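ingest -> validate -> predict -> emit
validate: passed (alphabet ok, no gaps, 378 aa)
predict: started
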Amino acid sequence: MWRPRDGSEAPIEDWLALILAPRVGPRTFVRLMEGFGSPSAVRAASDTRLEQIGLKPETVAALRQPEAELIDTICAWAEQPDAHLITLADPRYPPALTEIADPPPLLYARGDARLLSEPQIAIVGSRNPTPGGREITSDFARRLAGHGLIVTSGLAIGIDGAAHAAALETGHSIAVLGTGPDRVYPAVHRDLARRLVERGVMVSELPPGQGPLASSFPRRNRLISGLSLGVLVTEAALKSGSLITARQALEQGREVFAIPGSIRNPLSRGCHALIREGAKLVEEPDEILAELAPQLRAALLASERAPAIGTPDSVLTLPPDQAQLLTEMGHDPVTLDDLTSRTGLAVERISSMLLLMELEGHVSSLPGGRYARVHNRS
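emit:
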């Protein structure tokens, strides 16, 4: 996988000229970056050199005369306060996507782009769920988001919409679009999309103005799974996009979870098929949290700070960020708001750390959304 190196920065116009050129998909883009180092270097190469490495004449011609009107439209869209163009060389590009076989060279995002790099759980399922399936989905999404995981889905009607809406009640959510970032599809989710921009993020690899095409949604599904630590399927028929997402997750090395159901419910058959293929059967959100604990721990360790001076010896066995958090908790029950005020950390990060510390027996959750240290451990 190509990684940006010194001198790989390029004007956004060069990125767009290359990405929008015909026959330049994610894999071709990475191959070009590995050979030339930056979009600017690709555009500066001779026609002969570009054709020698396999680019078609129409692709080379597009690099010389890119779609100026579309590029201007994209740049104008990106000037909105909540809009972001995030290239593969951008520090905000989600690390999880760099691990998949064909990461998009550019992401179009609306909302809090920082959430794209936070630990996520994808929840997908039927567009026509049963009332019970919708209720289970909402319960899982609400509780998982409340523990600090970002709930990611595809903004479709049914399970996707239920997962987004419930997650926003207790935390944050990410919608991966099969359209451009300026389109809401289906239109019935316009209000949900507004809330997602306010308390989450909507992201697409398609440019502004791109409407829904059948071919776009399978590619969107690989991003839903690629962004996430794992994928939960709550209800799905045997032939559905949700099963495609789950199988892409397996190919990407992600965890796959499935909720079983009645053998008389056609929407249980997809989940049962996944379980037979090796997906983990889950009945409670805590089972997912426990399974993902090692990945959550690794994500936190990757960005931890040195422990503060004066941290008690009794908590130095914890990772530095968790040790600091335990110190700031003191010896009386505290709320998330208390800890946010004391540490200056984002509430979703504190929730992730508390989850791991609770699983390992360092803290316990109390009624009323409070937490306390377990004194026999520290």
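Residues 305-316 have pLDDT under 50 and may be disordered.
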